[in-house]
Structure formats: structure tokens, C-alpha cells
Amino acid sequence: MLNEGLGLHTVAHDTHVDRTPELQKLANGGELTNETTNADAEFKSDNSNSKEVSQAREDVEQAYQDDTPDGGLRAWLVIVGVNFASALRSTSFNLTAFAKAASGTFATFGYVNTFGVFQSYYEETVMPTTSPSTISWIGSAQYALIFVPGLLTGRLYDKGHVKLPLAVASALLVTSTFLTAECTEYWQFLLCQGILAGLTCGVIFGPSVGVTAHWFKRKRGIALGVISGGSSIGGTVFPIAARHLIQDVGFKWTMRILGFIQLFALSITCLTVARRLPPSKAPKKLVDFTIFKSLAYTIYCVANLVSFLGLYTVLTYIDVSAVHAGLDPNFTYYLVAIANVSSGFGRITAGFIADRTGPLNILIPGTTIAAVLTYAWPFAKTTGDFVAIAIIYGLFSAVYVSLLPAPIMAMGNQHNVGIMVGVSMTILAAGAISGPPISGAINASTGGFKSVGYYAGSMILASVALLIVTRQTVLKGRIYGRA
């Protein structure tokens, strides 16, 4: 319910009335409309009193939080902008928030999840004398740096800055893709496709996830699942397009075409992603270490770091390992696309279940199965084996990726969620940048992938143990409960 003391009408829980302009005026100390109550007029006449103004703003912020849309055209368009929307219609499913989120993950995580195809192509054609471990640093830089800017973007987001960082980062990401087309040496690929692309993806990804907390509460899980579904679409489109285009038009024009695809998707993101709540009055310091007073949050951050030491290993090396097992290279590049298609179902399903059970209750079993599949992957020998691994691994690893910020959103509030998610992303970046190269080094030293699977699977399983501790901390030792 909205605060009746502010003179605002009470609304039913399942019906959202957009009062953003009115609330914003009140937050700024101005009047509402001619229909305002005596309490509103009283507030206006006394707005010179700083204490009353401060209290009123706090009441307005609470009103915004209590009036979380959890749907509606405006809310779902946000999600589509962070995902990718082929068509938007004014329906009861609130497509506005949905639209905003999808194109962002399509053009960022979808592109990053494609590196397994580039890893194989670079090993075979562009850099045949360079070790797989060295080449994997390009992909690792992407994986890690997509999280590193979270500390800065989270702070900017909490202070109300969304549109400008998104626009600048989008332009630089498209530029980095065009520049990759001109690369001929390893350091050039690392700089353009690894570092620049990773950082710009991170600046886009952070705010795209943060806006979800403004528009969704009860349906936050499914919203996050739909958002991350954009990366599955991108992770399916980009590798298939890249492989065929390289054969038909060459590497340079392949990268240029991918750049134009990103340009289209990110244009939707820049036009649709927006905050709903006013900026928070957060302290000026970049990192607020008081967030680590939450034991559950601290353990969860460590769990994320450990998980990413192994989570992307299968996606990075499944193509190469299939060729190593004797499969046709013209088929193996489809494995990354198959895993990403499967992950799309996993992400949305996980979000739907998480809204009913709590995110940690679905993260733990889903991530456990992903660990088991990581152990099994090196033993695949036939086409059927690899396809099965790609489908099942994609399905269950997606649970972790799609619900990654959900537990944090429950631990914090709508005004510090940016910095909490940002700090967590920055911490897990250490695991993301180290995991694939460590796996590559193990592969180079052993000449196979069995030890790689043991290492990566063990890291994921260790993170499951930490997730269980996090859950028990949230539930204060109870066995059953929503967490």
C-alpha cells in the first residue's frame, strides 16, 4: 500500500497505478496536483524545514518500494530492452520492462558466450602456434571484465546514472567488434576482443540487471530468467552466424556483421532501459564495507568466486575437446549453440521456480548437477555423448548464471542493490579470469581433458557447499524455508 499520510490513494496489490511523476514532484519538494489533500498542502508550505523535507523524501522512497509494479507494459519493456524483443505489444504481461533487459544480455553475454567458437578457430587458423591456454586468456578477459565494472556501475546506478554509461559503453562495444576484424596478432585480439569488449559489456550488463529490482519483487525470479534468456539467444545466434560467415565472407566481414547485430540490439537497450526509483542518498565513498556485515552476503560472494573458477570451462573447451575426440569440426562448433539453446530453457524455468521457492533453493540442486556434468564431460566419445553433455550442462549451468544476483537482491534493499551486486560481480571476476586459463594449462600439461574436468567440477562442487552455508545462514539454521 502507498503511504496514506502522503495523501496518495491506496491501490490493490495486484493493480499498479503509475504515480512516478507525482511521487517525483513530492520527492523534490514540489506540489502534486489540485487534487492533493490538506496534508500535501501542509507539506508544501513547510518544505523549508529540512527535517520535514528529509522525512517526506524517505516516505516517498518507501511509497515507491511499496508500489513495485511486478509487471505491466512499462515494467516488461525494461526486461525486453535488457533482453531482445522482436515484437512488442501492449498486453497484460507488461512488456515494457521485459523489452529493456533482453537486448542488453543478447549483445553482451550472448557475444561473450560465443568465445568457444573463436577459441577453436584461432587455434586452427589464426594462431596455430599459440597454446590453447594463452588463447583462452582472450575469452577469460571477456568473462572477467564483464563483472569488474560492477563496482563502478553499481555506484553510478545507485546515484541515478544509467542512460549515459549505457550509451557510451554500447558505442565502444560495437567499435571493439569492428576493431577485432582488423586484428592479426595475439596482443591485438587480447586488447580488442578481450579487454575492451569485456569492460564495455560489463558497463552495459550491470545497470541492465539492477533495474530489475526497481520493477519487480514477487516476480523477480522470472524477470531475471527472461533477462538472462537474452544471452542464450545471443549465444545461439552468434556462434552459428560466426562459423557460417567465416566460411562464406571471411573473418573480417564476419566481425563487422556481428558488430551491426550488436548495434541493432543495443539501440533497443539504450532506448528502453530506465530506473523507476529516485537516486539514493548513498555515501560518497566508492565501496561501502558495511555491506559485508551480512554474513550471508559475504559467504555468497566467496561462493560466486569459487564457482567461476570452473563454471565456464565446459563452454570454453567443449568444441576443442570434441575435435580432440575425433568428431567432425564442421559439427563441433554447433555444440556451443546447442548448450546456449538449452540454457535458455534452464534460465526461464529456474526463474519461474525461484519465485515460488526462493533462489538459493533452486541454485543448489541446479549447480550440483552442473558439477556432475563437468566431471562427465571429458569421458564423452561420440556425437551423442557430446550433444547430451551440451544439452544437460547448458540447462543446469544456466540456473546459476540466471539467478546470480537474485539472492543479493533479497539480502539488500532497492537503494543499495546496485553497490551490493557490483561488489559481488567484481569479486567473482577473479574466478572468471583465472578459471579457463587454469583449465587450459592443465590440458597442456596432461595432454587431455580428464584432469580439466576434475578441476572444474571440483570448483563448482565447492561453490555448492558454500551456497548451502549461505542458505542455512539466511534461514538461521532451519532446514526448510524460502531462501
Tags for this model:
2 domains, disordered N terminus, mainly alpha, 483 residues, Growth Hormone, Chain: A, 0% strand, single chain
**Beta-strand residue fraction:** under 5%
What's the domain count? 2
How many strands, which pairing sense, and closed or not: the largest β-sheet? none
Number of DSSP E strands = 0
CATH topology of the largest domain: Growth Hormone, Chain: A
CATH superfamily of the largest domain: MFS general substrate transporter like domains
How far from one another are the termini? Answer: 24 Å
Q: Which class do the helix and strand fractions yield? A: mainly alpha
Helical percent range?
over 70%
| Radius of gyration (Å) | 23 Å
Tally the helices: what do you get?
A: 23
Q: What's the pLDDT, averaged over the residues? A: 77
SSE order: HHHHHHHHHHHHHHHHHHHHHHH
Oligomer: single chain
Low-confidence runs: 1-48, 84-102
Mind explaining what this structure looks like?
It is found in: Membrane. InterPro entries: MFS, MFS_dom, MFS_trans_sf, Proton-linked_MCT. Residues 78-474 form the Major facilitator superfamily (MFS) profile domain. The protein is 72% helix and 0% strand. It is built from 23 helices and no strands. It is globular and about 50 Å long. The chain has helices at residues 20-27, 38-45, 50-66, 73-82, 95-98, 100-107, 109-112, 115-126, 132-145, 150-158, 163-180, 186-215, 220-249, 251-272, 295-308, 313-324, 329-332, 334-357, 359-376, 383-403, 406-411, 417-446, 450-474. The relative contact order is 0.13.
